[in-house]
Design brief:
One of its GO terms (molecular function) is oxidoreductase activity, acting on the CH-OH group of donors, NAD or NADP as acceptor. The protein is an alpha/beta fold. It has 10 helices and 11 strands. The strands form 2 sheets. Strands 4-5-6-7-8-9-10-11 form an 8-stranded parallel beta sheet. It has a 3-stranded antiparallel beta sheet with strand order 1-2-3, with no helix packed on it.
Length: 291
């Protein structure tokens, strides 16, 4: 896993299998189906090289239509775009994974995805699910495979049982939740860390923090731009979500400034181990390190 110098929207990181993964993409979590088509199409036309969705988001079909429209309008080919989707928790298990992967491809209108992820480590299921992921990868239907929301311990357990090490771990990451031990482990293991909810989730309370507002004013940028740039300078892949074309454009305008050492230290000092997706706590019984 190797990230190159930060220079523009087409920057990539090299995954452990040699695949080039864009550093910046559009996330569509909580994007209503009616909004997803235009958001995805607009992002592609603005130069976004990556789109991230999931079956659980309920918008794969609309994302697929947005991809079709966006590529046509931009005069680009399928190979110019990196597409990620994820397996829903209720679909885990070996045969179920294979069946539901094909269903995702059909909804997206694609012959392959660039990255397929296990959405959560469902206790009692994730090991056999990963075996199916290895088959999908070996069959060439996904250029890379990985996981979401795996802790260091769960990742170690998975690697011990696997023939193929996950290439990506997509986790919640922002100044309030930095998980430094996990970040170091992933870097040391050659697994690319990807940030979901990089802007701190819904409500915008993180972006209202005085530290972030001060840094944004200093650079003449928005709070969102500061957070996205922070992800990039931390070596992460990041997928900020918006369905508004003006914000989609603004979120990609992060290559004409740099956060200095003092900025980076101030943002790092905001760590609180605070999740912004509070609903996750009600699922603690469901996810775990069991096979």
């Amino acid at each position: 896993m190797m990230s190159k110098e930060i220079s523009g929207i087409n920057d990539t990181t090299t995954l452990s299998n040699g695949v080039e993964m864009p550093r910046l993409g559009l996330g569509v979590w909580q994007a209503e189906p009616k909004d997803a088509v235009n958001a995805v199409s607009s992002a592609i036309q603005m130069g976004y090289p990556m789109i991230d969705t999931a079956k659980a988001y309920g918008n794969e079909q609309q994302v697929g239509e947005g991809i079709k429209q966006g590529l046509a309008a931009a005069g680009k080919k399928r190979d110019d775009l990196f597409v990620t989707t994820k397996l829903a928790n209720s679909d885990q298990g070996y045969e179920s994974t294979l069946t539901n992967f094909d269903a995702s491809l059909k909804r997206l209108g694609l012959d392959y995805v660039d990255l397929y992820l296990i959405h959560w480590p469902v206790a009692g299921k994730w090991a056999e699910t990963w075996r199916a992921f290895e088959k999908i990868y070996q069959d060439g239907k996904a250029r890379a495979i990985g996981v979401c929301n795996f802790s260091e311990q769960t990742m170690k357990s998975l690697i011990a049982l696997s023939d193929i090490t996950p290439m990506v771990d997509q986790v919640e990451f922002h100044p309030w939740l930095q998980q430094p031990s996990l970040k170091k482990y992933l870097a040391d293991t050659g697994i690319q860390q990807e940030a979901w909810s990089p802007l701190g989730g819904t409500g915008g309370s993180l972006m209202k923090e005085p530290v972030i507002q001060t840094i944004a004013k200093k650079h003449g940028k928005s709070a969102a731009q500061v957070l996205i740039r922070w992800d990039l300078q931390n070596g992460l892949v990041t997928i900020p979500k918006s369905v508004h074309p003006e914000y989609i454009k603004q979120n990609a305008d992060v290559y004409d400034f740099s956060l200095d050492d003092d900025d980076m230290k101030q943002l790092a000092a905001m760590e609180q181990s605070k999740r912004t997706s509070y609903w996750l706590t009600s699922f603690d019984w469901y996810f775990g390190d069991e096979k």
